Amino acid sequence: MLNFKNKILILSTFIFTALLFCTGCNSSSEASIQEKNAEKAAPTPASFLALGEFSVEYLEDGYVKVRDGAKREFLLVPRGKPPLEGFPKSRIVETPVRSVAAYGYFDISILKVLGVIEDVLVGVTAPKDEWVIPEVVQGMESGKIAFLGSYNSIDFEVLKKTGPEMAMTWDHSVIPILEDLGIPCLITSTPVAMCLNAKMKFVNFLAPFFGKETEASEYFGQVAGVLQEIAEKAAQAEEHPKVMWGDIYEKRVLVEPGNAWVGELVGLAMGDYVFDDVFGASCIEISMERFLTGGEDAEILFTYRTPLTGATSKEALAKTNPSMSAIQPLHAGKVFAPLPHYSQSGHKLDEILLEIAAIVHPDLYPNYERKYFTELPEKDA
């Protein structure tokens, strides 16, 4: 396991690399002068980007090859140009994409980052009363965005009528159905949880579908800047609170693994993540014994539950499962629950990262006002 000094070194190296990715690097003074004098510079993305399990490769003449979360390659073809050979019809997407159906909150939040959500989103898998993103609420009220049914019971007739040029989902089982409907299906999840680097760079994966590389670079740079701030403050930390992220349900115990972005952030913000040795998917299942062992001396618990799903107080959380009361945060520590809008706030990733860091080290962020998490009281009022 890395010691805290090494974690800071890793974070600093990561941020430096991230900033190079955003701004580019040119050693030629003449080129630098030309760049400063240019009134408007077109985006010049790297020819190949590895984004965790995803990848983007810029080819000649505007063509782009991408690899999705299911390790399938797609060809992005500029409108009006013929497709290249070697790709089945179901893996060819004309760009910029003009209409999309999407399952995931994070995917839809990234459409907001790219500035295309109002123009392209035509179908979602949550009803209107569950949405807080204004563009989605307004789109559903106007009839532009359709409710396609819940993720496990999609109404494919409704989906077909919406006419999306592409669908984004985590559900591999719908791939053959969508291919039969002539709708390219992009898998936006992976078997392994997104690390912090991949979480930040996911915007660069979706950008070429809509020709929004400039917007993606700006967002990435903004998030990288916040990480720089977190690193600078973390260097001042004198204590390293133990943090856990997960919950006990009726039949399963789920946590965020150490390789997930939240685990990495806690560690790099100079917290001690108790599931640092767990590797795998987001919301990975572990044994009750492992969860309780991690909670013996943890000081902070992030629960998956929101106040709307039972996380109204420590006492209420303990009642969801008697075993929960055995972990230290419920009686001698702090418990934080995500607010209902947290899951739809991927476009505010920089603010979320900063807030988690402020929770881990409140002494370094005096007077910080939380927007995405609430601290649970001992008992309900």
Automatic annotation (TrEMBL):
<dbReference type="InterPro" id="IPR002491">
    <property type="entry name" value="ABC_transptr_periplasmic_BD"/>
</dbReference>
<feature type="domain" description="Fe/B12 periplasmic-binding">
    <location>
        <begin position="99"/>
        <end position="368"/>
    </location>
</feature>
<dbReference type="Pfam" id="PF01497">
    <property type="entry name" value="Peripla_BP_2"/>
</dbReference>
<keyword id="KW-0732">Signal</keyword>
<protein>
    <submittedName>
        <fullName>Iron complex transport system substrate-binding protein</fullName>
    </submittedName>
</protein>
<feature type="signal peptide">
    <location>
        <begin position="1"/>
        <end position="31"/>
    </location>
</feature>
<dbReference type="InterPro" id="IPR050902">
    <property type="entry name" value="ABC_Transporter_SBP"/>
</dbReference>
